[in-house]
Amino acid sequence: MHPKIFGTGVALVTPFKTDLSIDFDGLTRLINHCIAGNIDFLVVMGTTGESVTLSNDEKSQVLEHVKKINDNNLPIILGIGGNNTSAVIESFSNYNLNGVDAILSVSPSYNKPTQEGIYQHFKAISEKSPLPIILYNVPGRTSSNMSAETTLRLANDFDNIIAIKEASGDMSQIMDIIKNKPSGFNVLSGDDAITLPIIAMGGKGVISVLGQGLPKEFSTMVSYALDDNSVEEARELHYKILDFVNPLFSEGNPAGIKKMLKLLNICGDNVRLPLVKASDSIENTIKKGLDNLKS
Fold it and tell me: I need a labelling partner for 74 at 20 to 30 A (CA). Which of 31, 50, 132, 220 fits?
């Protein structure tokens, strides 16, 4: 695996102004908040970044802004995925990939390919990608699970496929991957709530949503979890921040995390349709949690 891509990564939101144009000042505050909180790497244009509602120009502008503010402090992962294999490959040329360390590519959604189809999709991407690839399995969004067998087949066949962000929630599947993976291929949690259990089984970190709201707490928990001698400390932090997970995701992502970031005065809670803002009830729950965290 890329030596720098482990620990706590965060899938950055794309802040919007009230007119739904991109709020680059808010994005600056968010990046600095993550760097100050000891986050290990940044993920740009993931699902949390509302990439499906951004134009190609906007995506490039966001990437360039992240590179500028980050100033080579942290590795950058760029989300490039979809259910049209040719379009995914063509989109590599939409970006200036200098300063990008790897591609995060989600398994195809909607057209529900077979496991052989998923394998051939990533095989084609692997053969054309100028950067290492992190697979992303999130059947809750794609309605199509990438099996452990397919993941391991890809990991064994292509040296530039270096990791998987596993968000299936299937612990048996995740353990199968960790047990049988080749050297140099790693598993990152794609679920905030089960990051600690996945690391305990042999995972090497997380690509988190909550981590950008609470970077110090989340990154410290992950650091403790990766240290075999600090399990008690990791468990204490895990349960301290676990209560934030349900309110953050119960009305859709990134509506919840944007509500938290608004309460933290980092950016507004505006989202683009078809997403809508999280409710006042969610805001009150998150605010109460933040107050308790400070006490």
Answer: 50
* CA pair distance 131, 45, nearest whole angstrom: 16
pTM of the model: 0.95
Query: Is 121 within 8 Å of 108 (Cβ atoms)?
Result: yes
- Distance CA(147)–CA(69), nearest Å, equals 38
The answer to whether residue 136 is catalytic is: yes
Q: For this structure, is 239 an active site residue?
A: no
Cβ 99 vs Cβ 45: under 8 Å: no
Given 67, 165, 262, 277, which residue is catalytic? 165
Q: How confident is the model at residue 1 (pLDDT cuts 50, 70, 90)?
A: very low
- Catalytic residue, from 95, 136, 224, 262: name it: 136
Per-residue model confidence as pLDDT tens digits over 130-152: 999 999 999 999 999 999 999 99
String of DSSP letters for 130-180: SS-EEEEE-HHHHS----HHHHHHHHHH-TTEEEEEE-S--HHHHHHHHHH
**pLDDT surpassing 70 at residue 2:** no
Across 219-243, average pLDDT: 94
As a whole number of angstroms, the distance between CA 167 and CA 137 comes to 6
Q: Give the residue-averaged pLDDT of 155-166.
A: 98
Spatial distance between the Cα atoms of 107 and 283, rounded to a whole number of angstroms: 32
